[in-house]
Specification:
- By secondary structure, this protein is of the alpha/beta class.
- The chain has two domains: 6-17 and 273-384, Aspartate Aminotransferase, domain 1 (Alpha-Beta Complex), CATH 3.90.1150.10; 19-270, Aspartate Aminotransferase, domain 2 (3-Layer(aba) Sandwich).
- It has twelve helices and 13 strands.
- Strands 2-8-7-6-5-3-4 form a seven-stranded mixed beta sheet, sandwiched between helices. The chain has a four-stranded antiparallel beta sheet with strand order 9-10-13-12, with helices on one face. The chain has a two-stranded parallel ribbon with strand order 1-11.
- Helix 4 (102-113) links the parallel strand 3 (92-97) and strand 4 (117-122).
- The longest helix has 20 residues, at 42-61.
Length: 385
């Protein structure tokens, strides 16, 4: 009998996708797969109208006031590069955290290496949270923005964005939020939280395909154009269009991805973000309780899962995380993420910077049997070492 494949790497990419999402997206694309805004014929106009409707849906989803400030990009990393590189000038300062993904850390590092900016990284506490007061203490007179991940992709801790937004609002500093791990499972409320920009991706909890994501901006936050090309308007000018959203978009849009993203958002809205997260937390709690009973398996920042999203990172003492991941895959048919999760500072600060961690992240279609199988597999691995 063929072994059942168990996928527990949904924090990287949700799999499988809801079949209805892809089926509806492909059907719409087959009927309207032309370049939106690139022609005066009816189908091109209809495609542009569809994209405009989807911008409005995403603005409502993220609690943003202006659909024209919904910018499509390849993913959250692409969106973060657009906003970080497009908002800073020489001599500026950025505040971020040691929880961040390389999609934030590397743009900041390269900008500093080029002598354009300086930055400070706020530490997280022993439970995996960044304190708003610590953020406030790092803000300078030349601080251009604060950049914070809503949910740590290593620890699953949900950061206090509303409180950090209040700190930023009081000091007149824009807050940029990386919602790669939260969009689709935790509501994001840009306006009441005083968030200036949100970067998101479609291929995780928004249930869309890979290669689509973007950036949502508030009206009072200006981002400079850093990429140039065709927009379908102002074609006679040698300068890139400065009206939003075209200001930050260049070239033909990923229409199939945008439609798939829209269908994924519809799926999430129908299921309910709170309901999706509650189910995933139930599974992670079951996993946490099972793994915590195993000798040699160490869990991080998982004592209280109240302020967490649905993922868990562990270390098997005396083993490299990559080896654990390989055994889970080869011997048990269980897919997890092993290594440093593109967030090396988290691992270094928690003391497993040389071996990395093993991350388990259930999704909408994960079952209790899947979780129990993962616990049994880890018991075997830890016991045989």
């Amino acid at each position: 009998m063929e072994r059942r494949f168990i996928y527990l790497d949904n924090a990287a990419t949700t799999f499988p996708k809801p079949p209805s999402v892809l089926e509806k997206a492909v059907a719409t694309y087959l009927a309207m797969g032309v370049s939106p805004g690139r022609g005066g014929y009816d189908m091109a106009v209809e495609a542009e109208e569809l994209v405009t409707q989807i911008r409005g849906k995403l603005a409502r989803f993220f609690g943003a006031p202006d659909p024209d400030r919904v910018i499509f990009a390849a993913n959250a990393t692409d969106g973060l590069n657009l906003v970080i590189q497009g908002c800073v000038s020489p001599g500026d300062h950025i505040v971020s955290t040691r929880l961040e993904h390389n999609s934030v850390l590397r743009p900041l590092h390269h900008l500093k290496q080029r002598g354009i900016i300086d930055y400070d990284l706020v530490p997280f506490d022993g439970r995996g949270f960044v304190h708003p007061v610590a953020v406030a203490e790092k803000i300078r007179t030349n601080t251009r923005a604060v950049v914070v991940s809503h949910v740590s992709n290593v620890l699953g801790t949900i950061q206090p964005i509303e409180e950090i937004g209040r700190v930023c609002g009081e000091r007149g500093v824009p807050l940029i939020v990386d919602a790669a791990q939260s969009a689709g499972v935790i509501p994001v409320k840009m306006t009441p939280w005083q968030v200036s920009a949100v970067a998101f991706t479609g291929h995780k909890s928004l249930m869309g395909p890979s290669g689509i994501g973007g950036l949502v901006l508030n009206r009072d936050f200006e981002v400079r154009t850093t990429r140039y090309g065709g927009t379908g308007i102002d074609s006679e000018s040698p300068f890139h269009t400065q009206t939003y959203p075209h200001r930050l978009e260049a070239g033909t849009l990923n229409l199939l991805g945008i439609i798939g993203l829209s269908e994924g958002v519809d799926f999430v809205l129908a299921e309910g973000q709170d309901a999706i997260r509650a189910r995933e937390i139930e599974l992670v709690t079951r996993l946490r309780d099972g793994l915590s009973r195993l000798d040699g398996v160490k869990l991080y920042c998982a004592e209280d899962l109240t302020g967490h999203a649905g993922l868990l990172t562990v270390v098997v003492e005396g083993m490299n995380s990559q080896d654990v991941g390989t055994i889970l895959d080869a011997d048990f048919g269980i897919a997890v993420r092993a290594g440093f999760h593109c967030a090396p500072l988290v691992h270094a600060d928690l003391g497993f910077g040389k071996v990395g961690g093993v991350r388990f992240s259930p999704g909408p279609f994960t079952t209790r049997d899947d979780i129990d199988a993962a616990i049994d597999a880890m018991s075997t691995i830890a016991g045989s070492h």
